[in-house]
Amino acid sequence: MRKRMVCFLFLSSVLIALTGCGAERGSTKLADEAPVSERPDSVVSATPVVQSTVTPVPSSKVLQTDRVSPSDAPLSPAKSLSLAQTLVERYHKAVPTKWGENIPGVRTHLVTQDKVIALTFDACGGKEGSGYDEKLVDYLIKEQIPATLFVNARWLAANPDIFAKLAANPLFEIENHGTEHRPLSVNGRAAYGIAGTKDVSAVIREVTENADEIEKRMGRRPLFFRSGTAFYDDVAVGIAHDLGFQLAGYNVLGDAGATFNTEQVYHALIKARSGSIVLAHMNHPEKDTAEGVMKAIPVMQKAGFRFVHLSAYAVE
Q1: Helix, strand, coil shares, percent, the chain, to 5
Q2: Where are the bilayer-spanning segments (predicted)?
Q3: Is pTM, for the whole model, over 0.90?
Q4: What pairing do the DSSP bridges indicate for beta strands 99-100 and 246-248?
Q5: Does 131 score more than 90 pLDDT?
Q6: What is the mean pLDDT of residues 59-85?
Q7: Cα distance between residue 47 and residue 50, in whole Å
Q8: How many other CB atoms are there within 10 angstroms of residue 214's CB atom?
Q9: Which end of the chain is more exposed for a tag (fewer CB within 10 A), N or C?
Q10: For residue range 30-63, what is the model confidence (pLDDT) as tens digits?
Q11: Per-residue burial over 241-277, b = 16 or more CB atoms within 10 Å of its CB, e = otherwise
């Protein structure tokens, strides 16, 4: 009887051990076979966009190990090259299907019902003008009006001391207006007679080289990008998002490339509504933008509006 009991206990322990091994192997198998979307390499191996209809890749799908984000430390040259190569591979066969200023992925207004307006001023540089509208900026400083300034690399190179003063003033938020002031395109498409970036590599350079320069000079990487002419194709939108930038459009054309006269600027601005993003220019002191802005702002304030940086609210 005693021998039978010993045998029974031995067999029971063996069965328990085998059951435990099976459960452990099972749990290991489940971990190895996690859904593809949860695997750390799932984004790296994402299928390149090669269809005729391009959906920009959301920022949450960007390479998590390589993504350039405004809060990140600068990428090493090796990582920057790796990211650029990855994006070229991802997008080189993509064919644009949309073109314009207000295509999906370009953010045109603040998400709020508050009576706030974001004034944005482009500094284009080069043949588009490397001047400085001191009258406009001095007025904003005197009246303590916040504004977001989109600075092009050529304007920055022509005005380094002015840039340093503006960047040091908390009234102003400095953002990225591109390296060569080109429409953002993967096939060279032009807007207003300005040829766009010619391919994926050119898009990357247009967006990142000026961002790198701004970051080097002021210690903060820009959050927003606005292309020269504010035109984009949908493939370029996806690339810019993958590089970690939000694309800043507008819904109030404030001075039409600094071609409006004082009354036209004034009437454009007073049409702004809650959450409006106003686009005007600060690189043409010889034009009427300053006078129009100075005439409009008191009227807008009297109507209950206040002015904020572009980053003060979510934008869409």
Answers
A1: 45, 15, 45
A2: none
A3: no
A4: unpaired
A5: yes
A6: 52
A7: 8
A8: 22
A9: N
A10: 223 332 222 222 222 222 333 333 444 333 333 3
A11: bbbbbbbbbbbbbbbebbebebebbbebbbebeebbb
Pairing state of beta strands 116-123 and 172-176? unpaired
Token digits of residue 314 = 């979510």
Question: Is residue 64 scored above 90 in pLDDT?
Answer: no
Please tell me the predicted confidence (pLDDT) of residue 128: 86
Residue in the block written with tokens 């207003």: 192
Count of all residues that appear for the chain in the document: 316
Half-sphere exposure of 297 (CA within 13 A, CB side): 21
Report the amino acid identity of residue 23: A
Q: Enumerate residues 6+ apart whose C-beta is below 8 A from 314.
A: 110, 111, 112
Residue 3 pLDDT more than 60? Answer: no
**Distance between CA 106 and CA 269 in Å, rounded?**
21
**For residue 75, what pLDDT is reported?**
59
Q: 292 in helix, strand or coil?
A: helix
3-state secondary structure of 163: helix
- Is residue 225 within 8 A of residue 175, CB to CB? The reply is yes
The helix/strand/coil state of 3 is: helix
Copy the structure tokens of residue 272. Answer: 């702004």
86/188 Cα distance (integer angstroms): 21
> Cβ(119)–Cβ(265) under 8 Å?
no
CA distances from 74 to 65, 209, 212, 213 (A): 13, 12, 8, 11
